Amino acid sequence: MTSTTTTHRRWQRGLAAVAALSLTAAACGSDDDAADDPVPEATDDSTDDAMDGDAMTDDAMDDDAMDDDAMDGDDDAAMDGDEPADPPPTEDDPGDALGLDANGDGEVRIGIAAQGPRDDGGYYQGLVDQAEQISEENGFGEVIVVDEITFEQAAVELENLATQPVDIILVGASGLAGNLADLAEKFPDIYWYCNCGAGFAASDFYSQTQDEGAGIHYTAGVAFGQALQAAGGDTLAILGCCDLGFEKEVILSVELGMQAVDPSFTVTYSPTGDFPFDFDNVVNATAAYDAAVAAGADAIYPFLGGALEPVAQLAIDDGLIVANPGSADACDGDVDYDIAVRFDGGDYVGTVFPEIISGEFAEGDVRVFSAATDPDLVGAAFCDAPDLQPALDDAFALVASGDLDEQIGAIKAEAFAGG
User: Fold this and answer.
1) Alpha-carbon 188 to chain mean position
2) Rounded Cα distance, 281 and 262, in Å
3) What is the pTM for the complete model shown?
4) Among residues 243, 273, 278, 271, which one has the least CA distance to residue 173?
5) CATH of domain 213-346+372-415
6) Can you say whether residue 106 is alpha, beta or left, with left for phi > 0 and alpha for psi between -120 and 50 degrees?
7) Cα of 287 vs its chain's centroid, Å
8) What is each CA distance from 88 to 18, 47, 48, 52, 69, in whole angstroms?
9) Of 228, 290, 219, 227, the residue nearest 257 (C-alpha)
10) CA-based, 20 to 30 A from 391: which of 13, 80, 122, 400?
11) DSSP, res 332
12) Environment class of 355 (CB within 10 Å of its CB; exposed 0-12, middle 13-18, buried 19+)
């Protein structure tokens, strides 16, 4: 039996050697079951021939095939000294994605563990939508989604998901990842990935994406400040879960950005859920919203999951400024948001997934997204306020300059003090 370490290192290398990959494809049956690879890696022609559907037949080593395919001067650009790009993958030539078929059933399938509802219109849905798009584009099997997992249920639900016919598991948030290292080590053939947010522990048994929340939410604060200034308001109410460390980072960073626009602007915060990680309590969130409106809030940031859209719609109906937390597509959805604060798990996995296929983003690797390095993916965006955009562009530039590093460091120290 292969040891855990040996099996796991196979995944860290990403893909098996071409010969091993060919044996896997032959054992898996029909080429029609193979997945497409939208971003194939450039390889030499010997690799192309080995992966070609014809080369996987019993005649793969036929001398004529070698003459016609491997040595053909018209097709083999490498013979002229140039490195050609691979042709687009087809069902007959699945490319590197086949190396992700951990259970050898001839089909690559993604499983997702989500803390809130898969259709929340925000943070959770972004990851699910992206995984389904990746699967469709690559010819993978149907995505298996387990959503609305509580903190207490996480270990059991993740293990249950690992026993399903899945080859890749995407864990949607750090609130589900308390036992992730142990589970990933227990099921080493599965490729484990976590969208874990800032500061989550690294492990050789899973890859992860994180984001730099303070810089992201500084830009959100500037966006709120500009919108409030244009509307004649001065108060933002943030509705969250339960005063978690990353929520404190959000509050302090938004406040810093708002007060860069006008030092008199204020931020209030109301917890709406049970500790920890309860962002889905619609009843409590509605009550907190009503209290915020009664106290004179001019803008609402519902930093919520399952409770997001009900509260956001209330605020829109009341004519308040409203921002979506997380979704890069918020401005194009059914809810009429003013601002999208982008830290979209779907964008993160979409960015790294070609590297997961190629083996470049291995278990153990961490990719951090920030407003300084990824302004096209993260940070605030106005849905329809082009006249306010220049100030927001300046906010991104300021984060990238490093001039806020000391203040951002102080925010993190305060937000995560004692844990």
Assistant:
1) 21
2) 33
3) 0.75
4) 278
5) 3.40.50.2300
6) left
7) 31
8) 18, 14, 11, 12, 17
9) 219
10) 122
11) G
12) middle
Helix (H, G, I), strand (E, B) or coil at 20: helix
Amino acid (one-letter) located at 1: M
Identify residue 170 by its one-letter amino acid code.
Answer: L
Hey, what amino acid is at 373?
T
Integer distance in angstroms from the first to the last C-alpha of the chain?
A: 41
Low-confidence ranges of the chain (pLDDT < 50): 1-95
Which structure tokens are listed for 375? 């302004």
For tokens 């004179």, the residue is 296
Q: Which helix (H) or strand (E) holds 238?
A: strand 235-240
At 98 the pLDDT is 53
Q: Which 3 state secondary structure label does DSSP give 142?
A: coil
* Angle value at C-alpha 392, between 386 and 397, nearest 5 degrees: 135
Q: Tell which residue, 142, 201, 151, 141, has the closest CA to residue 176.
A: 151
Query: In whole angstroms, how far apart are CA 119 and each of 112, 116, 122, 199, 306?
Result: 13, 9, 8, 27, 8
Task: State residue 313 phi and psi, 5-degree precision.
Answer: -65, -35
